[in-house]
């Protein structure tokens, strides 16, 4: 065999390995994922408490250097590359098989990056285990007790909030996370929290998205269409994801605790109102539902009606259903068996908190 043939053979072997590498890594990540499902405590100690905090601090610092959403820009660039590839295939500048290979490799890389940079947090022990709760079984009596407290607190905390309050709310949420770090078992220092505005807020509003967390960039992204009294709770929910709370119901509980532990009435009203909505959703089947509603002050009822009408006008029902179906599939693929119903499971978690730690404001 000539020297040239030997070089070509080595070159082809290396290219084959490089082409296969993203898939090999993805398979390894998948194997670790299946092991993680069966060993949540190992995930907690080796990943969530040891590895992830360093990743979060580094990515949070880097993304914090930019005022715009790197997460949104990333997906715009990714979409452009896909379209550019299709155009190249159409004009025979790129072979279709090579294009499909690149798409498959990209998906494998994104899959691996997602779990390495944040996604393994889905497999940590549930929040009750992390906080050392005793076993509890939600019942109707306790549900009604908590619901009554929520109504009383929501009525008392009702306050007008404006979009101009965002800057001070950001600081208060950050301070509340630092203050509650011990109670919530957030085992690493405060992260750079600067929330970003979604580049495509109008489209996201049609999909029913109030915000999302970018795991590749450790960014909190919020919809500019958010109503002012939704803003504190939505921000706290996304920041909870930033701190490794992947489960949606748990992120809702954290947001509730963060908002209602504040002395600021704007945060308290947001926290109590949002949890009240989840509880009312579960109370809807009760025979005395109208009596429960009559306990809520007219000013709060007016806010809830305004909120419903506002988002209802923004949303596109067809797109919202597609978005919900995609989110449902995503959550079920990541060890959240109830899918999008997981959000409303914050009701059971709030009762658990109430029975183990007292009502969240602890005042």
Write the layout of secondary structure elements.
Layout: H1 3-38, H2 40-63, H3 70-90, H4 96-117, H5 127-130, H6 140-157, H7 166-179, E1 196-197, H8 201-206, E2 211-214, E3 219-222, H9 231-242, H10 248-260, H11 265-283, H12 289-293, H13 298-314, H14 317-333, H15 346-357
Parallel strand pairs: 1-3
Antiparallel strand pairs: 2-3
Helix pairs in contact: 1-4, 6-11, 7-9, 9-10, 10-11, 10-15
Descriptive overview:
The protein is an all-alpha fold and 363 residues long. It folds into two domains: 121 residues, no CATH class; 231 residues, no CATH class. It is built from 15 helices and three strands. Helix 9 crosses helix 10. The protein is globular and about 70 Å long. The chain starts with a helix and ends in a 6-residue tail after the last helix. The model has no long low-confidence stretch (mean pLDDT 87).
């Amino acid at each position: 065999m000539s020297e040239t043939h030997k070089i070509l053979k080595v070159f082809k072997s290396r290219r084959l390995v490089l082409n296969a590498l993203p898939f090999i890594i993805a398979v390894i990540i998948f194997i670790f994922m299946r092991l993680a499902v069966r060993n949540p405590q190992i995930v907690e100690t080796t990943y969530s408490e040891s590895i992830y905090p360093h990743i979060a601090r580094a990515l949070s610092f880097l993304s914090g250097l930019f005022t715009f959403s790197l997460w949104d820009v990333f997906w715009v660039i990714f979409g452009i590359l896909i379209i550019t590839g299709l155009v190249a295939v159409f004009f025979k500048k790129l072979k279709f098989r090579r294009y499909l290979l690149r798409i498959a490799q990209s998906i494998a890389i994104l899959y691996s990056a997602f779990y390495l940079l944040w996604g393994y947090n889905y497999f940590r022990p549930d929040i009750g285990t992390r906080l050392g709760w005793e076993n509890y079984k939600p019942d109707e009596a306790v549900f009604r007790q908590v619901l009554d407290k929520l109504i009383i607190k929501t009525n008392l905390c009702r306050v007008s909030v404006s979009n101009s309050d965002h800057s001070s709310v950001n600081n208060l949420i950050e301070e509340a996370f630092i203050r509650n770090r011990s109670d919530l078992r957030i085992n690493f220092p405060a992260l750079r929290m600067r929330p970003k505005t979604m580049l495509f807020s109008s489209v996201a509003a049609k999909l029913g998205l109030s915000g999302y967390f970018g795991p590749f960039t450790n960014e909190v992204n919020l919809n500019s269409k958010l109503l002012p009294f939704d803003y504190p709770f939505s921000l706290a929910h996304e920041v909870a994801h930033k701190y490794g709370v992947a489960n949606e119901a748990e992120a809702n509980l954290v947001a509730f605790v963060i908002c209602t532990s504040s002395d600021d009435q704007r945060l308290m009203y947001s926290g109590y109102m949002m949890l009240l909505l989840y509880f009312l959703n579960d109370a809807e089947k009760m025979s005395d539902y109208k009596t429960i509603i009559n306990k809520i002050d007219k000013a709060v009822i007016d806010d809830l009606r305004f909120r419903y009408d506002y988002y209802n006008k923004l949303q596109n029902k067809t797109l919202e259903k597609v978005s919900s179906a995609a989110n449902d599939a995503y959550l079920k693929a990541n060890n959240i068996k109830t899918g999008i119903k997981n959000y409303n499971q914050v009701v059971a978690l709030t009762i658990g908190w109430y029975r183990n730690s007292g009502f969240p404001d602890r005042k």
